[in-house]
Write a structure and sequence with these properties.
338 residues; Rossmann fold; 2 domains; 7-stranded parallel beta sheet; disordered C terminus
């Protein structure tokens, strides 16, 4: 029986990785504080504060077939490597496509230049620093997985789920949906379950090197269209230009008061990374509509107009629509400002 150690395992992606490893017949141990939730049934939780000097004492009693690191904090990454790299056959580090220095050129692969890690408070810089520390550690074969946007049920970031949830909510209240200008924009997403499955299988196969663990590229118009169709939304969509959204104080990509997945036109390379290496190493992707359907079920269960970490509350959206001079959903026929 394979011995898999997940450094984490109680939050979203880590729990999915632990679940996938269990499904493949591994004995799974999760080392975490346990504050983010429970481990999947069948996994063993070792409660530990990874900032403590002896955090790894309880898991140094065996050789691990795969250690899966989810953190990018060097204060956690380096001690884990020091304690466990010599007791692991394979090491998987979850990084990010945010490490790439150029997000304007479409079609980038794993050979593209990364940012220099000069500011470890910066997410991308910290990820690069974690990658380099892992590369420098002697011992196990190393897989560096660089996911893009991760989606699926339970997503704590609230990004991708905003759209099926918003179309469903608009179908109930009859008001329009505010959307960005989708011309020339792309969406690239990987289902958390597909990512977790690949990480487990790649570890079992001894896969090493850097791999962009990203989904296929879809036109943003297509992705929003599928989200609307799955939600059964047949109402009006009001398109606003980048300039109009910025003037209205709407943020891009993520976070409060944002339109998730919308990014400035000049960053057209961000959602267009190559996934050839992922496919070649056994990566499989479920249809986009399947992910959106499952995400919508999750959005309904969590509340369509709940407070969100990303996106506009419905009342905020209606305020922006009014600022844009958009139709009110009552047949008034007003035209949005461009």
């Amino acid at each position: 029986m394979r011995q898999v150690l997940v450094l984490g395992g109680t939050a979203w992606l880590g729990r999915e990785i632990a679940r996938a490893a269990l499904a493949h017949g591994a004995e799974v141990t999760c080392l975490a504080r346990g504050n983010a939730g429970a481990v999947p049934p069948g996994a063993r939780l070792v409660r530990a504060d990874r900032t403590h000097p002896v955090a790894y004492a309880a898991v140094q009693d065996r050789v691990w077939d795969d250690v899966i690191e989810l953190s990018y904090d060097l204060d956690l990454v380096r001690p884990a490597l020091d304690a466990l790299a010599g007791r692991a056959e394979h090491w998987s580090l979850v990084s990010s496509i945010s490490v790439y220095a150029d997000d304007t050129t479409p079609g980038g692969d794993e050979r593209a230049a990364v940012v220099e890690p000069v500011d470890l408070d910066n997410y991308a810089h910290a990820k690069v620093a974690a990658e380099r520390a892992s590369m420098d550690a002697p011992g196990p074969a190393l897989l560096i997985a660089r996911p893009g946007l991760i989606a699926g049920p339970g997503d704590p970031s609230d990004r991708f789920g905003y759209w099926p949830g918003r179309f469903a909510l608009a179908g109930e209240d009859g008001h329009p949906v505010l959307v960005p200008d989708v011309h020339g924009r792309a969406a690239q997403v990987i289902d958390v379950r597909d990512l977790a499955e690949w990480i487990v299988r790649a570890g079992a196969a001894g896969t090493s090197g850097v791999v962009n663990a990203v989904g296929d590229v879809h036109a943003l118009a297509e992705a929003l269209g599928v989200a609307a169709r799955v939600a059964g939304f047949e109402g009006e969509r009001v398109t606003a230009s980048d300039a109009a959204l910025i003037e209205a104080g709407v943020n891009f990509w993520a976070g409060p008061h944002s339109l998730p997945l919308w990014i400035p036109a000049e960053k057209r390379g961000f959602n267009r990374h190559r996934n050839d290496a992922f496919r070649a190493s056994g990566g499989m992707l479920r249809p986009l509509a399947e992910t959106i359907t499952d995400v919508l079920h999750d959005e309904r269960a969590r509340g369509l107009d709940r407070p969100r970490r990303a996106g506009l509350r419905r009342a905020e959206e209606r305020t922006v629509l009014a600022q844009l001079g958009a139709p009110r959903g009552d047949g008034s026929g007003a035209s949005p400002k461009r």
